Amino acid sequence: MATAYFAFQQRPDQEFIFELNDDERIAHARRIVSGEERERVHVMGRIIKRQAPYNPRWDFHLSPDTIHFFDYAIEVCDANMQEVEDHLPEACGAFLPGCDWCPWDSKITREIHIPMP
Q1: In the chain, count of helices (H) and strands (E)?
Q2: E strand residue ranges, 1-117
Q3: pLDDT tens digit string along 3-18?
Q4: Could you tell me which of 103, 14, 105, 115 has the C-alpha nearest to residue 67?
Q5: CB neighbours of residue 39 within 10 Å
Q6: Is pLDDT at 114 greater than 90 in this prediction?
Q7: pTM of this prediction exceeds 0.85
Q8: CA pair distance 36, 61, nearest whole angstrom
C-alpha cells in the first residue's frame, strides 16, 4: 500500500497537508490535482487533536483512513482550518460533532513529496 501526501487550501494563506494510504483515494486525489475530477473535489475526514510531523502548522490532522472526497456535505461539519485550530478544545462536541470536518471550500492544490527518513 502506498502513502501519499496532498495539500488543500481554503484561503491563499491557509494550507493543510494530509496523508492518504489507500490506493483508490490517492488516485482520486491525483485526478483532482490534474483537473480530471471536477465533482467530488472537497476533502472530508475525522480530525485527530495532535500535530502530525507532515503538517506542523496545525495542532490537528486528519485520520488517513477516514478521508474521502465530496461534492456537498451538511453544514455542521464545515469550518475553515483556522476556526478548527482556534476552537480545538471544543472540537468533537458541539463544534464538529464526532470530530468530522468537511471544509466546503477546501481545494486540493498539489501533491507533496515528503522524504522518508
Answers
A1: 2, 9
A2: 4-11, 14-20, 42-48, 61-62, 68-70, 91-92, 95-97, 100-101, 107-112
A3: 999 999 987 788 999 9
A4: 103
A5: 10
A6: no
A7: yes
A8: 26
Give the rounded distance of the alpha carbon of 43 from its chain centre. 5
Tell me the sheet residues that pair with 4.
Answer: 20
Enter the C-alpha cell of residue 5. 501526501
SS3 94: coil
Length of the chain counted residue by residue: 117
Residues 3, 14: Cα–Cα separation, whole Å: 23
pLDDT in tens, 68-82: 999 987 788 999 999
Q: Pick the residue with more confidence: 85 or 116? A: 85
